[in-house]
Design goal:
With about 190 residues, this protein is of the alpha+beta class. About 25% of the residues lie in helices and about 35% in strands.
Length: about 190
């Protein structure tokens, strides 16, 4: 099924989730620019925005994300507040395997200036609805570092279930790190 045939935009009470578009450049830039310094180990620090032009955003973000979706590799949703259209973060679904598995991976980032407003929980919950209803995934996993308490609390609060610890699972911070695996199946 072509991505233009799949409903990839959704709204909640406070948020709009949709693929990023070229006209989102200023909102994206503002969200990144206004981030607070890193608050803890898994919080991304401010990024260098000096080379980010409208054209680079169009090519390296919007076009690439659309290509990933067209190939059913990944779906990246900008998370925008309905009240003022500020971009508060993003949520991603990556395809791990299709065929008889229909298996995907969930990732999420909320800009730290918007933390503690429930946006992460609301966005992730709605992304799971999109994953199961619109993208026909059966199983979605979240792979979380064992000491990432905020992320653990988020997935548990929306009903994802702990499955296991995968030892030496992801190479980050210059070493192979253990990850907790949480999952949810389609209903």
């Amino acid at each position: 099924m072509k991505t233009e045939e799949i409903k990839l935009q959704s709204e909640t009470g406070r948020l709009v989730l949709r693929p990023l578009q070229n006209q989102d450049y200023e909102r994206w830039l503002e969200g990144c620019r206004n981030r607070f310094p890193s608050q803890y180990k898994y919080d991304d620090d401010k990024i260098d925005l000096s080379g980010w032009t409208q054209q680079k955003f169009n090519d390296d973000v919007v076009s690439k994300f659309q290509e990933y979706a067209d190939q059913d590799e990944a779906y990246v949703f900008g998370v925008f507040r309905r009240s003022d259209q500020k971009q508060v973060g993003k949520v991603e679904l990556e395809t791990i395997m299709r065929n008889e598995f229909q298996w995907g991976l969930l990732g999420y980032t909320i800009h730290n200036q918007f933390w503690r407003n429930g946006y992460g929980k609301e966005a992730v919950k709605e992304t799971l609805n999109i994953a199961f209803k619109n993208l026909q995934f059966h199983r979605i996993e979240a792979h979380i570092n064992v000491d990432n308490e905020p992320s653990i609390k988020l997935v548990e609060s929306i009903g994802m279930e702990f499955e296991c610890i995968r030892k030496g699972f992801i190479f980050e911070f210059n070493e192979w790190t253990d990850n907790l695996v949480y999952y949810m199946n389609s209903k």
